[in-house]
Amino acid sequence: MALGRVAGLEIRAVTAEAVRPLRHRVLRADMALESVRTESDDRPATVHLAAFDGDEIVGVMTVFADPSPLGDSTAQRIRWMAVDPARQRGAIGTALLEAGLAIARKRRAVSVWADARDTALGFYERHGFRPSGPSFIDPETGLAHTPVVLDLIGDRA
Ligand SMILES: CC(C)(COP(=O)(O)OP(=O)(O)OC[C@H]1O[C@@H](n2cnc3c(N)ncnc32)[C@H](O)[C@@H]1OP(=O)(O)O)[C@@H](O)C(=O)NCCC(=O)NCCS
After folding, report:
1. 62 Cβ partners below 8 Å, 6+ apart?
2. Is residue 67 within 8 Å of residue 147, measured between CB atoms?
3. CB of 112 closer than 8 Å to CB of 104
4. Domain ranges, ordered by start, for the chain
5. What pTM, to 2 d.p., does this model score?
6. CA of 93 to the centre of ligand 1 (A)
């Protein structure tokens, strides 16, 4: 079932196995394949989203329940957002994020959060997220990240 569409692409829910190759290629190509596998991937309520161009996956994202650093126990977390480098800045990330936010709203989450790579901070800010703490170095990748949060209260239908 399509959860969203952008420029001829379809957003669909897929398995954890399906999102890992693009996760690895875009986010951790210099690390082991194992590095893009996490415990939260296999929780029953975790949703893995993929943007399909025909049979090809060109963007991925994962959304799951995780209390926010600001203490929201209802929060949903966005992680592993990755768009094929040849397709970046073509609205695929936006379509994935919107599908993830729709899931969070359905789950009655009060907020959605992410640890944004500082290089992608503008993407999250563009979608209304705000920094919720200082920038830090992720110990696994050595890259600077900033926690960001989007309040969903007030935009519920
Ligand atoms: C970050 C990423 C997921 C965004 O997806 P995308 O499809 O490229 O983004 P969109 O085309 O939907 O961008 C929408 C808007 O967000 C903003 N934006 C997107 N990427 C940005 C970036 N890296 N820096 C600053 N602003 C950005 C822009 O305002 C953009 O609109 P514009 O292209 O008209 O200027 C994608 O570029 C990506 O995979 N980057 C590499 C991996 C990564 O950093 N992932 C996030 C880890 S937290």
Report:
1. 16, 19, 40, 41, 46, 47, 48, 49, 78, 79, 80
2. no
3. yes
4. 4-151
5. 0.95
6. 6
Provide, for the chain, the percentages of residues in helix, strand and coil under a 3-state DSSP scheme, each rounded to the nearest 5.
Answer: 30, 35, 35
- Averaged over successive runs of 10 residues, the pLDDT of the chain (157 residues) comes to 79 97 97 95 96 96 96 97 97 96 97 98 98 96 97 70
Q: Which of 23, 30, 89 to mutate to test the pocket of ligand 1 (most atoms within 8 A of CB)?
A: 89
CB contact at 8 A, 62 and 48: yes
Ligand 1: residues with CB < 6 A are 26-27, 81-83, 88-94, 116-117, 119-120, 122-123, 126
pLDDT of residue 122: 98
Q: Whose CA is nearest to atom 4 of ligand 1?
A: 93
The span from the CA of 17 to the CA of 20, in Å, is 6
Domain 4-151: assigned CATH number: 3.40.630.30
**How far apart (Å, rounded) are the C-alpha atoms in residues 76 and 112?**
5
